[in-house]
Amino acid sequence: MRIGFIGLGNMGGPMAANLLKAGFDLSVFDLSTKAVEAAAALGARSVGSPAEIARDDVEAIITMLPAAAHVKQVYLGDDGLLASVQPGVLLIDSSTIDPLNAREVSAVAHAKGNPMLDAPVSGGTAGAAAGTLTFMVGGEQADFDRARPVLAAMGKNIVHCGGAGNGQVAKVANNLLLGISMIGVAEAMSLGVKLGMDAEVLAGIINTSSGRCWSSEVNNPLTGAPAARGYSGGFGTDLMLKDLGLASEAARQVRQPVLLGALAQQLFQTFSNQGNGQLDFSAIVKLYQQD
Amino acid sequence: MRIGFIGLGNMGGPMAANLLKAGFDLSVFDLSTKAVEAAAALGARSVGSPAEIARDDVEAIITMLPAAAHVKQVYLGDDGLLASVQPGVLLIDSSTIDPLNAREVSAVAHAKGNPMLDAPVSGGTAGAAAGTLTFMVGGEQADFDRARPVLAAMGKNIVHCGGAGNGQVAKVANNLLLGISMIGVAEAMSLGVKLGMDAEVLAGIINTSSGRCWSSEVNNPLTGAPAARGYSGGFGTDLMLKDLGLASEAARQVRQPVLLGALAQQLFQTFSNQGNGQLDFSAIVKLYQQD
Amino acid sequence: MRIGFIGLGNMGGPMAANLLKAGFDLSVFDLSTKAVEAAAALGARSVGSPAEIARDDVEAIITMLPAAAHVKQVYLGDDGLLASVQPGVLLIDSSTIDPLNAREVSAVAHAKGNPMLDAPVSGGTAGAAAGTLTFMVGGEQADFDRARPVLAAMGKNIVHCGGAGNGQVAKVANNLLLGISMIGVAEAMSLGVKLGMDAEVLAGIINTSSGRCWSSEVNNPLTGAPAARGYSGGFGTDLMLKDLGLASEAARQVRQPVLLGALAQQLFQTFSNQGNGQLDFSAIVKLYQQD
Amino acid sequence: MRIGFIGLGNMGGPMAANLLKAGFDLSVFDLSTKAVEAAAALGARSVGSPAEIARDDVEAIITMLPAAAHVKQVYLGDDGLLASVQPGVLLIDSSTIDPLNAREVSAVAHAKGNPMLDAPVSGGTAGAAAGTLTFMVGGEQADFDRARPVLAAMGKNIVHCGGAGNGQVAKVANNLLLGISMIGVAEAMSLGVKLGMDAEVLAGIINTSSGRCWSSEVNNPLTGAPAARGYSGGFGTDLMLKDLGLASEAARQVRQPVLLGALAQQLFQTFSNQGNGQLDFSAIVKLYQQD
């Protein structure tokens, strides 16, 4: 099966590598020559533009791009995918963008005769390399079924979230909650320690009580793995900041209040501006330890 | 073993009943004649004042009172426990109050020769009735060991949290996080649904992802048990509001910022003022559904 | 002097009328036939499209549109102003949009040889009708000088704020502060009254103290003119909500935290969702009086 | 007229000096020998305890103490004022404390036959030295009239705010708004500058627009006098933090939401913890300039 792949960055690169490893025939495009050469070394065919991939004889095209502006340009631009792609080719956008833009692109694609799925991922660069990503997929059931074997080569948890855009909705809603609960853990742990408790004891109690959450159990800002390694690696503060920006913008568009979410976004912005954008997002606890 | 028990309210009443059921000999006091009669009907001995319990030949005294003011009056008042109690009698305060007041009372008790534990509970009236409460206990190890068989008659999870006041610290920190994460779930679920997702599908995805928490899994504001029964019963909004008040006040005293926590407190206050103080605290999602 | 005017809504309509009254020769366009007819009745010439105005022999073109998307379409669209306008024609956009989009359009205009000013207004529909608007103008000094007589026919306070986009910056910054201080007044007045003070007495004290602000003096949510008339008319909640959305989005783009601003936005959204979007924004005090 | 004065700190010291200068006969008490000696050097009579002042032949007693705990001890303690003072002596508490504690002390005083006023001040140490303080006074009109000549020796703006506690209500409400609007100005100015505007130009526009407030006009965090002197002196961050703590606690007691106020308190706490507690509170703008 021949697949086009556009966007060979930190996430897209290892995802493409896993597709090649699984035996898919890949045509790839990226603005970075280096990224393209790396994929070519693993057996991918390099082409000169998104449009050229579209004109290529592919059954599906996967895009993995930084933001909605890039997605709209690659799909809807004058020399974009939809201007050239054959009807029936399955389009899969794994970029993380806001749901409304995702639905807008999907509607144009469907109007041109191309099924389209939004399929953002979680799991980070480690999950991309290991092929253990989670895909949250929005689109029609038949298209989801068709995409599943392709996605399964890159991830191990492939979830159908409903119609077009719902993959983005699921990701944005989950990460909104994740950002809030991480700060909640940072506040609760900081307060407990300031009041005299041992961090490990407190984490143990919370994790068997009603405060327990992924951020207290797996990624605890004081007692977890990121803290132990100085908050390097992991899910970066600036990535969380981006996702909270998508959440609050989507909320604004549908007139849905997100009070804690908006405040969480501003706190990650404050923390990022202090020079911490590259640290694991659990490092936000430092904002609470500045005395 | 003879035990004194002061405070036979919604929590204290069933706790005392479980002690009687377990064979303890109980002297009880409460301002409500009705509550005292109910305990007497189960075999408790009714006495006329806290001081009378203190003068009674008890080995331990348990208090379960609404707020710090009552605790200070019962222990430190002119006619209070510490004015009359024999040295060596173990004092256990299961009220939920702020850690600094708990430590102040504990220090006076120790100075008078009485070991004291702060032992606030979680589990609600249902847990109190079933004898399945969690006790978060602050105080010395030897005193904790001595109290354990007594507490075990009322709860099934008895956790030592460190020195005096740490039981209160653990509870206040856990419930601070709980209040924040519940609102986080309310925002994430409301946003997802407003953006077109099915609530059950979204809850399912969050609960297998990094947003998962007790509030999304066990007490989900849209898909959980409290929602299914119209938010009656459960852990009331006004109880959460009280605990967030304790958390923010404790934070103020030790100069610890709690930004999301302070906002969560104000949101529960806003919601309570709309007439919802008695609803399960997951009903806060209604604040996000007013259009 | 012949002027083109695009956008004859609640604001643009009376602004165009004042230009006609001042003797300017006007070519107008709006999608609403009714709005165009009203202007024509006052002496304006109706044309069929923005492009037609551009091709007309005008010295300046003023646009007054709802949002950035409309501004970009009218100026940059395939059949937009910049595709047809003669070099040298002065472009004045009085829409309220975010500064970065304003600068993007301005840069394209300058590249085409057209000076451009962003000139958002304050003063509302009453100011538009009375010709007493404030214009906050971004762009070059020479262009500002050229525009001043035109703007002076519609407003009485014409302020040069610096280079391109700075008119929008000034408006967005002022209204960010305005939204925050109005909620601040609502909270202070509500708290004072709940604690037993007379609202008029409290307003009097604040207005001679360090809490004084436009929102406490001119538009006090409890004692001001909008309150006296049931919050009808005035500067609507949904307009404030729009401006806070522009502010938080501009802040996100330049990575500037706006913590109170983001929360204020969410509070106006919450209040608007309760059915109050058309009320004067000082009605936000009702959110604090729901018990 | 003989007056007792208790509390000769940064505020009380110069206030007592102004009373002496105006010809009042003063008996003073403070725990600091140095402070007492300074007052004695100006003609005050030093006494050994609050009770001794109470037993002295004074017509009025003024207290200026750090917090409610001190006020309650000095008035209600076993050896406190109310245990010894002659009926009819006018009691004036100029401390800044929460309204409910003020009312509690006032009620006890009245029950003992002593009229009492709460009379917190604004104007800072500079106003105390210059005798230009503002007094916000709660209590009965007749008592207010009796106190006025005394207060006029220390301040120039003496405002009657209504019944007992209302002086504290007025102060707490004003300073709640002040804290919020200062952060609002900090956010608006920071955003405007980050978006490319000159701070002076922006301040000029805001100060003639609807965003104008005392914090933008008199104490602007970027262009005001405190900024020009490196934020030394002025109204300290920790004083604002204390007043916001009083406001949020009073709000909690009467179940009044203060969403922006609670967040403002947390932001000043965060900023104070970074080592800035002694800076003028307009320095909070630094929290927004950490990139």
Automatic annotation (TrEMBL), chains A, B, C, D:
It catalyses: 3-hydroxy-2-methylpropanoate + NAD(+) = 2-methyl-3-oxopropanoate + NADH + H(+). Residues 2-162 form the 6-phosphogluconate dehydrogenase NADP-binding domain. One of its GO terms (molecular function) is 3-hydroxyisobutyrate dehydrogenase activity. It comes from the Bacteria. SUPFAM superfamilies: 6-phosphogluconate dehydrogenase C-terminal domain-like, NAD(P)-binding Rossmann-fold domains. Pfam families: NAD_binding_11, NAD_binding_2. Residues 165-288 form the 3-hydroxyisobutyrate dehydrogenase-like NAD-binding domain. Keywords: Branched-chain amino acid catabolism, NAD, Oxidoreductase. Pathway: Amino-acid degradation; L-valine degradation. PANTHER family: 3-HYDROXYISOBUTYRATE DEHYDROGENASE, MITOCHONDRIAL, 3-HYDROXYISOBUTYRATE DEHYDROGENASE-RELATED. NCBIfam families: HIBADH. This is 3-hydroxyisobutyrate dehydrogenase. The gene is mmsB.
